[in-house]
Amino acid sequence: MAHPPHRTDAMPRLPRIDLPHIPQHVVQRGNGRRPCFFQPIDHVRYLDELRTAATRAGCAIHAYVLMTNHVHLLVTPGASGQVGAMMQALGRRYVRYVNDRYGRTGTLWEPLQSVPRAKRRAPAALLPLHRAQPGPRCNGGDAR
Q1: Handedness of CA 86, 88, 89, 95 (dihedral sign)
Q2: What pLDDT, on a 0 to 100 scale, did the predictor assign at position 114?
Q3: 143 and 65 in contact (C-beta within 8 Å)?
Q4: Contact 125, 25 (CB under 8 A)
Q5: Please, where are the H alpha helices in the chain?
Q6: 10 Å Cβ neighbour count for 128?
Q7: Phi, psi at residue 119, to the nearest 5°?
Q8: Which DSSP state fits 41?
Q9: What is the pLDDT of residues 29-71, one digit of tens each?
Q10: Please, which residues have CB within 8 angstroms of residue 9's CB and are 6 or more apart in sequence?
């Protein structure tokens, strides 16, 4: 199957809004919407890596939802650039883990999506997702 020609007239991606102390809804999707979690231990490993990366980057994780092929995070950075640094470190470590564990190569993730949220309404933004996917993959609280 032939690949479509590369488009040179496409608009570049808009810069990510990255404001300190403003909660951000971060969506991390599996590449091609393929799975990024294969067994329950993968969820545990992702959350462990998330906790480490958030602590090092100075980000507060308020809520998360881990789906089979994507992740939702509610993150507040202490300074500009910290969400990107956290996600980069998390991605590097988790992808290495998955590739080693399952004998695969390449990336797991599509480009990151991040949207600032109003402080009072941010947790409510994730409630429908939390209710839609009960079980150990969801948590309405801190990523501890």
Answers
A1: positive
A2: 74
A3: no
A4: yes
A5: 40-57, 82-102, 122-132
A6: 10
A7: -55, -45
A8: H
A9: 999 999 999 999 999 999 999 999 999 999 999 999 999 999 9
A10: none
Question: Which tokens in the block code for residue 50?
Answer: 């998330």
Neighbours of 109 (CB within 10 A): 17
Domains contained in the chain, CATH given: 32-139 (3.30.70)
Residue 10 clears pLDDT 60, i.e. is over it = no
Backbone angles phi, psi at 69, to 5 degrees: -120, 10
Cβ neighbours, 10 Å, residue 57: 21
Q: What is the pLDDT of residues 86-141, one digit of tens each?
A: 999 999 999 999 999 999 999 999 988 777 765 544 444 454 444 433 333 344 44
Phi-psi region of 54 (alpha: psi -120 to 50; beta: other; left: phi over 0): alpha
Residues recorded for the chain: 144
Amino acid at residue number 64 = Y
Please tell me the predicted confidence (pLDDT) of residue 87: 95
